[in-house]
């Protein structure tokens, strides 16, 4: 298990090391909105690329990037306009407003003196064009999936795909959450990685099982504190015949990380009815069918958060001294190699900069010359850098450098002309 006991500890580390910042912090902050810093943005990009390669580098799945602004009729057909609501209540004592869910009392003051629940639509509404009238209403999409369903037939015909095939997408989505948080666990602006797999109805059980197992395998080597949780019949979404969550054990308990859903024919069928366009798929035998859909949906921001939680650890170095380490997987770390001259002497700096520039195209690298070498090691440990390359005065004589391992804290002396093969082997 991770050594992380609460999100506050992680949030402090993330700000200190450039992973994430409160949005508009100098103006008091914008609640439930976050700006990813240099390291956080790179880690997020690395995760997205890993997911994208896993999904799209196969013969049966293609990619899509649909618009963030959603036509209102799309969301009427999908059911979001009428049904995408949360029961909202107010505490009559402290005036705190919150989503009811299974809470029977105010989470802020504990009072049970609350109002009757009333529906609150979670979508952000705006207007397209120069005049704010009802005819110009559009929505910020609450999920990326609808863009895939709407473009299903265009993708299928243009790419000449036959069932089964999938469409994957990474993109921003927006929900006007009433009780967001904590930290980045639930936000109003977030990024989804979704794949909709179109199949013949008679194969739904087969492909549901396949994607359930395949998505769990994705996390091997990344996250350990995960489990399945099958949805009970009374908690299934209106479109789903079966569903399972892959949950991660956050500091706040077991929470959903990814969902795999058997959505049946609901989505394509509803858009066919709403648009009055024929979205039927023609099989090789000439049969016209509305395909079933198996969906895999994960929040990129939540996966990012889970990875940081998993990676955080505290170690006793010596009596009264601890080191904080982000033990990020080497292939995902936002900095993989840091080059550290032992001192600010010009010859050492010159060699360190030369090596940094040499490996910049191959790895995510950093250069650090500030503070003692011990403090710099600790700084890189908190960042999650797997390897530190130290250039000392002997390096100028014997053309060797010292490579320190983040996890083992061991040090190897490596010849400069062997450094490439050494790094390739380690990373």
Task: Pick out its properties.
427 residues; alpha+beta; seven-stranded mixed β-sheet; five-stranded mixed β-sheet
Poorly predicted tracts of residues: none
**Percent helix:** 25-40%
What's the rounded overall pLDDT mean?
Answer: 91
Going by helix content, strand content and strand pairing, the class is: alpha+beta
Lateral strand order in the biggest sheet: 3-10-11-17-14-13-12
The N- and C-terminal alpha carbons lie at a distance of 24 Å
Major β-sheet annotation: 7 strands, mixed
Strands, count: 24
Radius of gyration: 25 Å
**Beta-strand residue fraction:** 25-35%
- SS summary, helix count: 13
Molecular shape: globular
What does this structure look like?
- The chain is built from 13 helices and 24 strands.
- With 427 residues, it is an alpha+beta fold.
- α2 packs across α9 (300-311) and α3 (72-78) packs across α8.
- The longest helix is centred in the first third of the chain and has 19 residues, at 38-56.
- The model has no long low-confidence stretch (mean pLDDT 91).
Topology summary:
Blueprint: H1 7-16, E1 20-22, E2 34-36, H2 38-56, E3 61-63, E4 69-70, H3 72-78, H4 80-83, E5 85-90, E6 97-99, E7 118-121, E8 124-127, E9 137-140, H5 145-150, H6 152-158, E10 165-174, E11 189-199, H7 204-218, E12 226-230, E13 242-250, E14 253-264, H8 266-275, E15 281-282, E16 288-289, E17 292-299, H9 300-311, E18 312-318, E19 321-326, E20 337-341, H10 346-359, E21 365-367, H11 373-383, E22 387-391, H12 393-398, E23 400-405, E24 411-415, H13 419-426
Helix pairs in contact: 2-9, 3-8
């Amino acid at each position: 298990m991770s050594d992380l006991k609460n999100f506050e500890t992680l949030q402090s580390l993330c700000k200190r090391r450039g992973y994430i910042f409160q949005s508009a912090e100098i103006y008091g902050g914008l609640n439930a909105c976050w700006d990813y810093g240099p390291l956080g943005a790179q880690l997020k990009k690395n995760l997205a690329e890993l997911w994208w390669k896993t999904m799209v580098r196969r013969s049966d799945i293609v990619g899509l990037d649909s618009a963030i602004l959603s036509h209102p009729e799309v969301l009427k057909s999908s059911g979001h306009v009428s049904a995408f609501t949360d029961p909202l209540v107010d505490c009559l004592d402290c005036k705190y407003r919150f989503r009811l869910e299974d809470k029977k009392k105010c989470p802020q003051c504990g009072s049970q003196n609350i109002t009757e629940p009333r529906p609150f639509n979670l979508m952000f509404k705006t207007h397209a064009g120069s005049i704010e009238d009802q005819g110009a209403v559009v929505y910020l999409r609450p999920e990326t999936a609808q863009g895939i369903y709407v473009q299903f037939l265009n993708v299928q015909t243009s790419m000449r795909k036959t069932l089964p095939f999938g469409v994957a997408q990474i993109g921003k989505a927006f929900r006007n959450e009433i009780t967001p948080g904590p930290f980045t666990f639930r936000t109003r602006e977030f990024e989804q990685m979704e794949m909709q797999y179109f199949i013949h109805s008679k194969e739904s059980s087969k492909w549901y099982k396949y994607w359930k197992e395949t998505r769990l395998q994705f996390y091997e080597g990344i996250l350990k504190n995960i489990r399945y949780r099958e949805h009970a019949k009374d908690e299934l979404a209106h479109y789903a015949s079966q569903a399972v969550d892959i949950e991660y054990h956050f500091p706040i308990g077991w929470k959903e990380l990814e969902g795999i859903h058997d959505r049946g024919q609901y989505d394509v069928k509803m858009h066919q009815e709403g648009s009055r366009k024929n979205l039927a798929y023609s099989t090789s035998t000439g049969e016209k069918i509305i395909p079933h859909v198996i969906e895999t949906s994960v929040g990129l921001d939540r996966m990012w958060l889970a990875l940081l939680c998993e990676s955080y650890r505290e170690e006793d170095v010596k009596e009264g001294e601890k080191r904080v380490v982000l033990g990020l997987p080497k292939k995902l770390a936002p900095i993989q190699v840091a080059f550290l001259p032992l001192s600010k002497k010009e010859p050492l700096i010159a060699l360190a900069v030369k090596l940094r520039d040499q490996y910049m195209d191959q790895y995510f690298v950093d250069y650090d010359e500030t503070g003692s070498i011990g403090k710099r090691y600790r700084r890189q440990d908190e960042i999650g850098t797997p390897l530190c390359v130290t250039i000392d005065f002997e390096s100028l004589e014997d053309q060797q450098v010292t490579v320190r391992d983040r996890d083992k804290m061991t040090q190897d002396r490596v010849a400069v002309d062997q450094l490439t093969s050494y790094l390739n082997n380690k990373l």
